[in-house]
Design a protein that fits this description.
The structure is a homodimer of 305-residue chains.
Chain A: E1 4-7, E2 12-19, E3 27-29, E4 31-38, H1 40-50, E5 55-61, H2 63-75, E6 80-84, E7 90-97, E8 102-106, H3 114-127, E9 133-137, H4 148-159, E10 163-166, H5 170-177, E11 182-183, H6 187-193, H7 198-208, E12 212-216, E13 222-226, E14 229-233, H8 246-260, H9 264-279, H10 289-295, E15 302-303
Parallel strand pairs in A: 1-5, 1-9, 2-7, 5-6, 9-10, 10-11, 11-12
Antiparallel strand pairs in A: 2-4, 7-8, 12-13, 13-14, 14-15
Helix pairs in contact in A: 1-8, 3-4, 4-5, 8-9, 9-10
Keywords (chains A, B): ATP-binding, Kinase, Nucleotide-binding, Transferase
GO cellular component, one term (chains A, B): cytosol
InterPro entries (chains A, B): Carboh/pur_kinase_PfkB_CS, PfkB_dom, Ribokinase-like, Tagatose/fructose_Pkinase
Chain lengths: 305, 305
Amino acid sequence: MSRVVCVTPNPAIDVTYRVPELTPGASHRAADVLERPGGKGVNVARVLHALGVPAVVVAPLGGPGGRWLADALADAGLPVRTVPVAAATRRTVTVVDDSGAATALNEPGRPLSQAEWSAVVAAVTEELAGAAALVVSGSLPAGAPDDLLPRLLAAARAAGVPAVADTSGPALLAAAGAGPALLKPNAEELAAAVPGATLDAARRLLTLGADRVVVSQGAAGLLGLAGDEVWRVAAVPGLSGNPTGAGDATVAALVRGLMTGAPWPDVLADAAALGAAAVLTAAAGEVDLAGYARFLPTLHAERVG
Amino acid sequence: MSRVVCVTPNPAIDVTYRVPELTPGASHRAADVLERPGGKGVNVARVLHALGVPAVVVAPLGGPGGRWLADALADAGLPVRTVPVAAATRRTVTVVDDSGAATALNEPGRPLSQAEWSAVVAAVTEELAGAAALVVSGSLPAGAPDDLLPRLLAAARAAGVPAVADTSGPALLAAAGAGPALLKPNAEELAAAVPGATLDAARRLLTLGADRVVVSQGAAGLLGLAGDEVWRVAAVPGLSGNPTGAGDATVAALVRGLMTGAPWPDVLADAAALGAAAVLTAAAGEVDLAGYARFLPTLHAERVG
């Protein structure tokens, strides 16, 4: 089976510290130090890998942390196409205390040179030959070129590969104009990029050029637009857990749906089930496959417009 | 000039994040991410280097962070004798907010194998040939051999090199029994290791075998015992700043004093001035040399016993 190319413009090493209680101003001994490959494109690739869908991660990686991340992905059986860059790959630290509260300390992505961004585009273009789909996920480091998403999506179009983008801010609008197969903002990201009611804002992304739009709305489920059809899937009721990474699992299911050509309502229900299965796991990039199997038969998309 | 061998059994990468306000349970974007070589022996070596006293760092280093730390020391002009180990070198994260409050999240040192500890002792033994002094500073990772300090101090004795230890807990008592030239606990570390009043506890370390003992007492200054003489130096009054690393600067001055054979009260006054000069700087391992020059003439040790 040909591969899904998962581009992660802003990868990270996700670090989790466990402390009894986080007290500002105090000194804490971190127990259970956990380090994982992170970044939304990496998470999508890990979920696809868990589903048996071949994927390759393309990411700019630099410094000792970048080498660690490439090694960790390879150890997990995930192919990675590293674009070597001068800037050290960032870390994101999450401090979890005994009450379950999670405090995030996210390093910003360090800027790349324009030549390094061009090398990212060139690596993606090479990987697109014979690929099944392109996924571009996550934020962009400061200083990334405004036309990065359009360049990546144009490369996919030229290669005849369907492209999915999950991003925010100006990059979301730029992506829409490049005619992707699918955009997957969450409701907050959509509201920040396009003023107006959720459905109107999603329709605006179609008008700009996207073939389909899925808006993830947390406990309100998924809204899926294709042409002039609007579908809705309710979320799994009463779900509690770790929502980080649920959007990435949703994207993984959506890209699999585009690849198989399954009916749109079935794709949406599958995406809602896999997103819910991610909430059951402790870490982003993982899904609870038993939970997925339990949720899937209970979810059905209904046409609402 | 021959070198001071600075052993750091538990090195770290010291990371500082600046956030407007640390709020447990919230997500923060860290600005001004700063990474520095850390660990108390590393700090002592950096202060000696700033004073023009040649020093070499001996440390077990592992993983990408260990390589980073070795490179960063070399870039700073500090020789480093790396003992390669399997465990990744730990990180310590300090979150500083706009109020100046510092919240520490310290990873514990990862355990080394007994063979790796023996390699540390062997590396130190080699570096001691022709060395001016040995400094062993800082905590020990869990699982370190009980006799690590005695083995290092015995190697110094065999090489005819004076040895200084700045450690805590059972390692402090074990070090005393091995007959070091000097021990430098702080008052809390001394109280935790030896019950009783500060002066009585310090005398106990002499009885166990240390030639000299200096107890750092923060705003109460330094207490210095040599044979049956007890001296005291007051702290610089009204000093405020960053006390992290003040003890390491104090150790650097003490070891320089042992090397030059300066009179004991002068060594103590010098150590108090250099410790105060460290409080003026933002980071451990640095001293404000202008502050040092300003403080030194104002400090004098008085004999109190």
